[in-house]
Design a protein that fits this description.
lyase activity, 283 residues, alpha/beta, 11 helices, lyase, 2-enoyl-CoA Hydratase, Chain A, domain 1
Length: 283
Amino acid sequence: MSDLNALLHSRSFVELGARQRAAALLDQGSLRELLDPFARVKSPWLEAQGIVAQADDGVVVAKGTIGGRPLVIAAIEGNFQGGSLGEVGGAKLAGALELAAEDNRNGIPTAAVLLLETGGVRLQEANLGLAAIAEVQAAIVELRQYQPVIGVVAGPVGCFGGMSIAAGLCSHLLVTREARLGLNGPQVIEQEAGLDEYDSRDRPFIWSLTGGEQRAACGLVDAYVADEVSVIRECLLHTLEQPGDTLPRSRQYARFLDLLEGYDAAPQADAASVRALYQGDQA
């Protein structure tokens, strides 16, 4: 292992950029990026709004191996437009998943890892972004029939909006302590429901409800891992080695609906009451 690769494997995963994260998780020297920045495939919609477009549209997609197993990996760059997904980035992500499904149909058992650092749809691209996210979701459902699709939410942007639904469709979901996962972000909830309902500046409260530890305790994710590249890579390898007969969480909707049916949403929710609800202890 090269000195650089050894450094990447021993350091914080959260501190790495999207391209570094993908390289650090794959076997050394196996990464082959698809539509890299030199392809200049970027959003045509941002410049007109005074926003400097990024050459890869904030999404890194690559093929490689992990533990010798064929893998497609996609990483969203949270530092570009809050990790929002637009037409180009969404097409890249969906296309990578579709390539993996095609590999499986051709006898190459290719799994997928999605590194989700995203606030959801890019508002500047509106319906185009929503359509792209819908394609991503459809591609996840298609691929998981063949091989696992593993989502990783590390932080600090978290995973929200339509991409949180994509995360919920993954075969397995891994989170760190720094991660957050929810349908609506804190500022959106505060804007629509008011400060008394949700104070977006109250970081301890936000993490107590949507943070990685809480989501793991509620059974909404499959693994709660330390923020270290080697730990996350080892967890991915272990997950890929498991039998593929586990029912995806999105197919367990009846159980979740039963849990939610009797919940009284009038009082302010807190971490303890939400955890009790999902653990089946709510009276």
